[in-house]
Protein backbone atom coordinates (compact mmCIF):
# COMPACT_ATOMS: atom_id res chain seq x y z
CA UNK A 1 0.00 0.00 0.00
CA UNK A 2 1.06 3.57 -0.59
CA UNK A 3 2.09 5.58 2.41
CA UNK A 4 0.56 9.03 2.51
CA UNK A 5 3.25 11.65 3.15
CA UNK A 6 3.25 13.38 6.50
CA UNK A 7 1.77 16.88 6.36
CA UNK A 8 4.70 19.26 5.73
CA UNK A 9 4.93 22.79 7.03
CA UNK A 10 3.18 25.52 5.08
CA UNK A 11 5.29 27.46 2.59
CA UNK A 12 5.01 31.11 3.67
CA UNK A 13 3.58 32.37 0.39
CA UNK A 14 0.95 29.70 -0.13
CA UNK A 15 -2.62 30.69 -0.84
CA UNK A 16 -4.83 27.80 -1.87
CA UNK A 17 -5.79 28.16 -5.52
CA UNK A 18 -9.54 28.07 -5.92
CA UNK A 19 -9.91 30.15 -9.07
CA UNK A 20 -9.73 27.12 -11.31
CA UNK A 21 -12.26 24.96 -9.54
CA UNK A 22 -15.18 24.26 -11.85
CA UNK A 23 -17.64 26.48 -9.98
CA UNK A 24 -15.07 28.97 -8.73
CA UNK A 25 -15.56 28.00 -5.09
CA UNK A 26 -13.39 26.17 -2.60
CA UNK A 27 -14.49 22.95 -0.88
CA UNK A 28 -16.41 23.52 2.40
CA UNK A 29 -13.47 22.62 4.64
CA UNK A 30 -10.22 22.67 2.68
CA UNK A 31 -7.34 20.60 4.09
CA UNK A 32 -4.98 22.69 6.18
CA UNK A 33 -1.72 22.01 4.38
CA UNK A 34 -0.97 22.88 0.76
CA UNK A 35 0.03 19.40 -0.33
CA UNK A 36 -3.16 17.87 1.03
CA UNK A 37 -5.17 20.77 -0.43
CA UNK A 38 -3.66 20.12 -3.86
CA UNK A 39 -4.43 16.44 -3.60
CA UNK A 40 -8.01 17.10 -2.50
CA UNK A 41 -8.53 19.38 -5.51
CA UNK A 42 -6.97 16.85 -7.88
CA UNK A 43 -9.15 14.06 -6.48
CA UNK A 44 -12.28 16.19 -6.65
CA UNK A 45 -11.89 17.91 -10.02
CA UNK A 46 -9.32 15.77 -11.85
CA UNK A 47 -6.90 18.70 -12.10
CA UNK A 48 -5.36 21.42 -9.95
CA UNK A 49 -3.45 24.58 -10.86
CA UNK A 50 -0.57 25.56 -8.57
CA UNK A 51 0.74 29.12 -8.52
CA UNK A 52 4.25 29.95 -9.74
CA UNK A 53 5.12 31.31 -6.28
CA UNK A 54 5.26 27.74 -4.95
CA UNK A 55 8.24 26.96 -7.17
CA UNK A 56 10.69 29.84 -6.70
CA UNK A 57 13.61 27.82 -8.08
CA UNK A 58 12.06 27.49 -11.54
CA UNK A 59 14.20 29.82 -13.65
CA UNK A 60 11.78 30.85 -16.40
CA UNK A 61 14.18 32.95 -18.53
CA UNK A 62 16.76 30.14 -18.59
CA UNK A 63 14.09 27.52 -19.29
CA UNK A 64 12.60 29.65 -22.08
CA UNK A 65 15.98 30.11 -23.69
CA UNK A 66 16.73 26.35 -23.58
CA UNK A 67 13.21 25.58 -24.82
CA UNK A 68 13.52 28.00 -27.74
CA UNK A 69 16.85 26.54 -28.88
CA UNK A 70 15.55 22.96 -28.71
CA UNK A 71 12.28 23.84 -30.45
CA UNK A 72 14.20 25.46 -33.31
CA UNK A 73 16.33 22.32 -33.65
CA UNK A 74 13.14 20.22 -33.64
CA UNK A 75 11.40 22.32 -36.30
CA UNK A 76 14.46 22.28 -38.54
CA UNK A 77 15.11 18.55 -38.30
CA UNK A 78 18.19 18.44 -36.10
CA UNK A 79 16.35 17.15 -32.99
CA UNK A 80 14.73 13.84 -33.98
CA UNK A 81 12.47 13.37 -30.95
CA UNK A 82 9.28 15.15 -31.93
CA UNK A 83 5.49 14.94 -32.02
CA UNK A 84 4.48 15.45 -35.61
CA UNK A 85 1.28 16.71 -37.22
CA UNK A 86 -1.30 15.28 -37.57
CA UNK A 87 -0.54 12.32 -35.32
CA UNK A 88 -1.98 12.32 -31.80
CA UNK A 89 -0.31 9.30 -30.17
CA UNK A 90 3.17 7.70 -30.24
CA UNK A 91 5.13 6.53 -32.10
CA UNK A 92 5.93 9.66 -34.13
CA UNK A 93 8.31 9.81 -37.10
CA UNK A 94 11.42 12.02 -36.87
CA UNK A 95 10.59 14.01 -39.99
CA UNK A 96 9.28 17.51 -39.11
CA UNK A 97 8.27 18.45 -42.66
CA UNK A 98 4.51 18.26 -41.89
CA UNK A 99 5.02 20.36 -38.76
CA UNK A 100 5.39 19.53 -35.08
CA UNK A 101 3.34 20.05 -31.93
CA UNK A 102 5.74 18.63 -29.37
CA UNK A 103 9.40 18.08 -28.55
CA UNK A 104 10.27 14.85 -26.78
CA UNK A 105 12.97 13.79 -24.34
CA UNK A 106 14.09 17.14 -22.94
CA UNK A 107 16.49 15.34 -20.59
CA UNK A 108 18.11 13.21 -23.29
CA UNK A 109 21.89 13.43 -22.68
CA UNK A 110 22.43 14.62 -26.28
CA UNK A 111 20.45 17.82 -25.56
CA UNK A 112 23.08 20.44 -24.57
CA UNK A 113 20.48 21.93 -22.17
CA UNK A 114 19.37 18.65 -20.64
CA UNK A 115 20.52 19.71 -17.16
CA UNK A 116 18.46 22.92 -17.29
CA UNK A 117 15.32 20.89 -17.88
CA UNK A 118 16.35 18.20 -15.40
CA UNK A 119 16.75 20.81 -12.64
CA UNK A 120 13.07 21.66 -13.00
CA UNK A 121 12.03 18.00 -13.25
CA UNK A 122 13.93 16.92 -10.14
CA UNK A 123 13.12 20.13 -8.23
CA UNK A 124 12.75 19.28 -4.53
CA UNK A 125 9.49 21.18 -4.08
CA UNK A 126 7.96 19.74 -7.25
CA UNK A 127 8.84 16.24 -6.04
CA UNK A 128 7.15 16.94 -2.69
CA UNK A 129 3.94 17.81 -4.53
CA UNK A 130 4.29 14.81 -6.82
CA UNK A 131 4.66 12.39 -3.90
CA UNK A 132 1.70 13.95 -2.10
CA UNK A 133 -0.48 13.83 -5.22
CA UNK A 134 0.37 10.21 -5.93
CA UNK A 135 0.09 9.23 -2.27
CA UNK A 136 3.55 7.75 -1.86
CA UNK A 137 6.81 8.78 -0.26
CA UNK A 138 9.56 10.60 -2.17
CA UNK A 139 11.63 7.43 -1.80
CA UNK A 140 9.14 5.60 -4.03
CA UNK A 141 9.25 8.01 -7.02
CA UNK A 142 10.17 6.79 -10.51
CA UNK A 143 11.55 8.93 -13.33
CA UNK A 144 9.18 8.93 -16.30
CA UNK A 145 8.73 11.48 -19.09
CA UNK A 146 9.72 15.08 -19.69
CA UNK A 147 8.56 16.50 -22.99
CA UNK A 148 7.42 19.89 -24.24
CA UNK A 149 4.21 20.87 -26.00
CA UNK A 150 4.74 23.64 -28.53
CA UNK A 151 2.83 25.85 -30.95
CA UNK A 152 1.89 23.64 -33.91
CA UNK A 153 3.04 24.73 -37.37
CA UNK A 154 -0.58 24.57 -38.63
CA UNK A 155 -4.07 24.45 -37.14
CA UNK A 156 -4.31 21.30 -35.05
CA UNK A 157 -6.19 19.85 -32.12
CA UNK A 158 -6.38 16.57 -30.24
CA UNK A 159 -9.59 14.60 -30.02
CA UNK A 160 -11.33 14.03 -26.69
CA UNK A 161 -9.57 11.19 -24.94
CA UNK A 162 -8.43 9.57 -21.74
CA UNK A 163 -4.71 8.77 -21.93
CA UNK A 164 -5.02 5.18 -20.79
CA UNK A 165 -8.55 4.10 -21.72
CA UNK A 166 -9.47 3.58 -25.36
CA UNK A 167 -12.70 5.12 -26.72
CA UNK A 168 -14.15 1.67 -27.41
CA UNK A 169 -14.15 0.83 -23.67
CA UNK A 170 -17.55 -0.05 -22.22
CA UNK A 171 -18.93 1.78 -19.18
CA UNK A 172 -17.86 -1.15 -17.01
CA UNK A 173 -14.33 -1.15 -18.44
CA UNK A 174 -14.02 2.60 -17.96
CA UNK A 175 -15.23 2.39 -14.37
CA UNK A 176 -12.95 -0.54 -13.57
CA UNK A 177 -9.89 1.36 -14.84
CA UNK A 178 -10.89 4.64 -13.21
CA UNK A 179 -11.35 2.90 -9.87
CA UNK A 180 -7.69 1.88 -9.84
CA UNK A 181 -5.02 4.29 -8.59
CA UNK A 182 -3.11 6.08 -11.36
CA UNK A 183 0.29 5.57 -9.70
CA UNK A 184 1.78 8.68 -11.24
CA UNK A 185 1.42 12.44 -11.45
CA UNK A 186 1.32 14.34 -14.73
CA UNK A 187 1.73 18.07 -15.12
CA UNK A 188 1.99 21.00 -17.51
CA UNK A 189 4.43 23.77 -16.55
CA UNK A 190 3.75 26.75 -18.79
CA UNK A 191 6.77 28.82 -19.88
CA UNK A 192 4.35 31.17 -21.68
CA UNK A 193 0.68 31.78 -20.88
CA UNK A 194 -1.18 28.75 -22.16
CA UNK A 195 -4.88 27.99 -22.68
CA UNK A 196 -4.61 24.81 -24.78
CA UNK A 197 -5.73 22.09 -22.40
CA UNK A 198 -9.50 21.55 -22.17
CA UNK A 199 -10.96 19.19 -19.56
CA UNK A 200 -14.32 17.99 -18.33
CA UNK A 201 -13.93 18.44 -14.55
CA UNK A 202 -14.98 15.40 -12.54
CA UNK A 203 -14.95 13.06 -15.56
CA UNK A 204 -12.00 11.14 -14.07
CA UNK A 205 -14.41 9.53 -11.60
CA UNK A 206 -17.19 8.34 -13.87
CA UNK A 207 -17.88 6.60 -17.17
CA UNK A 208 -18.64 8.83 -20.15
CA UNK A 209 -22.20 10.07 -20.38
CA UNK A 210 -24.32 9.14 -23.40
CA UNK A 211 -23.72 12.67 -24.74
CA UNK A 212 -19.95 12.33 -24.39
CA UNK A 213 -19.96 8.95 -26.09
CA UNK A 214 -22.04 10.21 -28.98
CA UNK A 215 -20.14 13.50 -29.35
CA UNK A 216 -17.91 14.31 -32.29
CA UNK A 217 -14.32 13.40 -31.28
CA UNK A 218 -13.43 17.09 -31.82
CA UNK A 219 -16.62 18.50 -30.23
CA UNK A 220 -15.97 22.18 -29.51
CA UNK A 221 -18.52 22.50 -26.71
CA UNK A 222 -18.62 19.39 -24.58
CA UNK A 223 -21.07 19.88 -21.67
CA UNK A 224 -19.19 21.11 -18.59
CA UNK A 225 -15.86 21.53 -20.39
CA UNK A 226 -13.33 23.97 -18.99
CA UNK A 227 -10.21 25.52 -20.47
CA UNK A 228 -7.26 25.21 -18.07
CA UNK A 229 -5.74 28.67 -18.30
CA UNK A 230 -2.15 28.88 -17.12
CA UNK A 231 -0.05 31.96 -16.58
CA UNK A 232 3.66 31.53 -17.25
CA UNK A 233 5.23 29.66 -14.34
CA UNK A 234 2.00 28.00 -13.18
CA UNK A 235 1.78 24.24 -12.98
CA UNK A 236 -1.36 22.24 -13.75
CA UNK A 237 -1.39 18.69 -12.45
CA UNK A 238 -4.09 16.55 -14.00
CA UNK A 239 -5.38 13.03 -13.89
CA UNK A 240 -4.44 11.64 -17.31
CA UNK A 241 -7.72 9.74 -17.48
CA UNK A 242 -9.83 12.87 -17.15
CA UNK A 243 -11.75 13.41 -20.39
CA UNK A 244 -9.58 16.02 -22.09
CA UNK A 245 -8.25 17.35 -25.35
CA UNK A 246 -5.73 19.91 -26.65
CA UNK A 247 -6.87 22.83 -28.81
CA UNK A 248 -3.97 24.73 -30.30
CA UNK A 249 -3.48 28.14 -31.84
CA UNK A 250 -0.68 28.08 -34.43
CA UNK A 251 -0.31 31.88 -34.04
CA UNK A 252 0.34 31.84 -30.29
CA UNK A 253 3.68 30.87 -28.74
CA UNK A 254 3.42 27.76 -26.65
CA UNK A 255 6.24 26.15 -24.73
CA UNK A 256 4.77 24.08 -21.95
CA UNK A 257 6.86 21.48 -20.17
CA UNK A 258 4.86 18.28 -19.95
CA UNK A 259 6.10 15.87 -17.31
CA UNK A 260 5.14 12.73 -15.51
CA UNK A 261 6.61 10.93 -12.53
CA UNK A 262 5.53 7.53 -11.26
CA UNK A 263 6.08 5.33 -8.27
CA UNK A 264 7.68 1.96 -7.75
CA UNK A 265 4.38 0.91 -6.14
CA UNK A 266 2.65 0.86 -9.51
CA UNK A 267 5.25 0.13 -12.14
CA UNK A 268 3.37 -2.70 -13.86
CA UNK A 269 0.32 -0.45 -14.38
CA UNK A 270 2.36 2.35 -15.83
CA UNK A 271 4.89 0.53 -17.98
CA UNK A 272 3.21 0.84 -21.39
CA UNK A 273 2.13 4.44 -20.97
CA UNK A 274 5.69 5.52 -20.17
CA UNK A 275 7.91 3.20 -22.18
CA UNK A 276 5.94 3.63 -25.44
CA UNK A 277 7.62 7.07 -25.58
CA UNK A 278 11.06 5.45 -25.88
CA UNK A 279 12.57 6.90 -22.71
CA UNK A 280 13.92 3.48 -21.65
CA UNK A 281 16.37 3.58 -24.57
CA UNK A 282 18.46 6.46 -23.27
CA UNK A 283 17.77 6.85 -19.55
CA UNK A 284 20.44 4.29 -18.71
CA UNK A 285 23.13 6.62 -20.06
CA UNK A 286 22.17 9.56 -17.89
CA UNK A 287 24.98 10.48 -15.45
CA UNK A 288 23.62 13.65 -13.72
CA UNK A 289 27.24 14.63 -12.98
CA UNK A 290 26.59 18.38 -13.23
CA UNK A 291 23.80 18.34 -10.63
CA UNK A 292 24.27 19.40 -7.04
CA UNK A 293 24.66 16.43 -4.74
CA UNK A 294 21.15 16.21 -3.27
CA UNK A 295 19.50 16.43 -6.65
CA UNK A 296 21.95 13.95 -8.15
CA UNK A 297 21.09 11.33 -5.52
CA UNK A 298 17.34 11.82 -6.03
CA UNK A 299 17.70 11.70 -9.80
CA UNK A 300 19.87 8.58 -9.80
CA UNK A 301 17.43 6.73 -7.62
CA UNK A 302 14.47 7.72 -9.78
CA UNK A 303 16.35 6.76 -12.95
CA UNK A 304 17.22 3.34 -11.50
CA UNK A 305 13.55 2.77 -10.78
CA UNK A 306 12.67 3.54 -14.42
CA UNK A 307 15.36 1.22 -15.77
CA UNK A 308 14.07 -1.51 -13.49
CA UNK A 309 10.52 -0.93 -14.75
CA UNK A 310 11.74 -1.38 -18.33
CA UNK A 311 13.67 -4.51 -17.42
CA UNK A 312 10.63 -6.11 -15.80
CA UNK A 313 8.04 -5.13 -18.39
CA UNK A 314 9.72 -6.30 -21.63
CA UNK A 315 7.87 -5.41 -24.88
CA UNK A 316 4.98 -3.12 -23.98
CA UNK A 317 3.34 -2.05 -27.28
CA UNK A 318 1.55 1.24 -27.98
CA UNK A 319 -1.74 2.83 -26.86
CA UNK A 320 -2.93 3.69 -30.37
CA UNK A 321 -0.09 3.08 -32.80
CA UNK A 322 -1.62 4.39 -36.02
CA UNK A 323 -3.52 7.42 -34.82
O1 LIG B 1 -1.71 19.89 -25.00
C1 LIG B 1 -2.02 19.47 -23.88
O2 LIG B 1 -1.83 20.14 -22.86
C2 LIG B 1 -2.68 18.12 -23.75
C3 LIG B 1 -1.85 17.03 -24.33
C4 LIG B 1 -2.54 15.71 -24.29
O3 LIG B 1 -3.72 15.61 -24.06
C5 LIG B 1 -1.79 14.48 -24.54
O4 LIG B 1 -0.58 14.55 -24.82
O5 LIG B 1 -2.42 13.40 -24.44
UniProtKB/TrEMBL annotation:
Record field: compositional bias (Low complexity): 15-27
Domain of life: Eukaryota
Stretch list, region Disordered: 1-36
InterPro entries tied to this protein: Phytyl_CoA_dOase-like (IPR008775)
Pfam family, one: PhyH
SUPFAM superfamilies, alphabetized: Clavaminate synthase-like (SSF51197)
Protein name: Phytanoyl-CoA dioxygenase
Source organism of the structure: Pseudopithomyces chartarum
Amino acid sequence: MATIVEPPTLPPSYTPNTSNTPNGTSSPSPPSNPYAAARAALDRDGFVVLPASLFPTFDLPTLRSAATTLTTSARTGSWPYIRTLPKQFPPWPSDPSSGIWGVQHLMHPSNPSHATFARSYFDAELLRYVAALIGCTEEDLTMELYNMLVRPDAAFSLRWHRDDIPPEATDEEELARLAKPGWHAQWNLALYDDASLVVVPGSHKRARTATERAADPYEANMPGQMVVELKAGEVAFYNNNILHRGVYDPERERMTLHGSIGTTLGSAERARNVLQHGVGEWAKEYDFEDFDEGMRERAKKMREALVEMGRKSGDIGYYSKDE
